[in-house]
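User: Please look over both lines:
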Amino acid sequence: MTNKDSESEKGVDEQLEQRNGSAGVTGKRQKVKAHSKKWWWVYLILFIAGVLIVTLPIIYVGFPNIAQNGVNKAHLEVTGLEFYNPTPDSIQVTERIITHNPSMYTPTLDPWSGGTFVVTNGTYSDKAIVYLPVPKTHTLHPLSNAAIVNATVPINDQAQIALYATQLVKLEKVTTALVGKPLLHIGKLPAIHVNYNASTTYSGMNGLQGFNVTNIRIDPGNTLLILPNMNGTAFIPNPSNITADLGNVTFSLKDPAGVEVGVALIENMLLRPGDNNLPLVGMLNQTLVIPALENGFINLTITGTDCIYNGKHIPYYEAALAANLFHLRLNVLQILKDSLGI
């Protein structure tokens, strides 16, 4: 056999091997294709199951955690509080707030009922003051405005609203918390209930420091104490952003010995933020004032005793005013001279 014949035979063998290999590959592909065609639905189910296994924990576990974390990081800033139309059992509230939202998520909260709690040195009161109807809100990043406007709400607990009113009047800073479980939406993801618990600190009235009575005039001839014999202007600074409609407020005037020497009345007492100048009338028992004078001056302790709105006592305002004492030094001789035009 020549070399040419040997090479020819090798070439034939290689071609046969290539054809046999190609046929083998084609056969495997056909088997895979046939298997896939027959069992495609099984693979589809497995694919869907895999997608669900990955996505469902994200939606139903990861998303609630992310949403709750975003709610926890947000905080409120109270920019205005208004209290009108008080009754012994209810009050009309307007609250304006700014929500600070550091998260890039911008959720929407459905309307919900939020309990307002007094927070004292980090400790929540055991009962809510009132439950506020919080409207539907869409929280933006980084800031958004919201308001509860003219909501008349029942008093949930008399002791708590008396405590709150007292803190508003006496303290420089007041802390309250809004608590509830609103329904939260983000896009088309399933809505979830979140635990909303946001405390905020804002300015109180700080004891209404700077209180004074000016332009006082007395009627020395009116000693029967049947009609008012004194009038003046009460200067009441309010450093907070709180407006409170108190109604007709009566004050007791006592000398240093604790003897009541007179009473004063401010009708329709409406405290607004800033300086308030309100007309005041009263009855001064001149027989008791004279023995208490020191070089023509008298030191008075002034305490709120009655707060009447639409003919009804407002006990929580009366508690707040009774807890806040005013001190006033009056030059009685000068007041008498001014009253007589001397």
In short: The chain has three domains: 1-73, 74-204, 207-340. The chain has a mean pLDDT of 86. The domain at 207-340 is CATH 2.60.40 (Immunoglobulin-like).
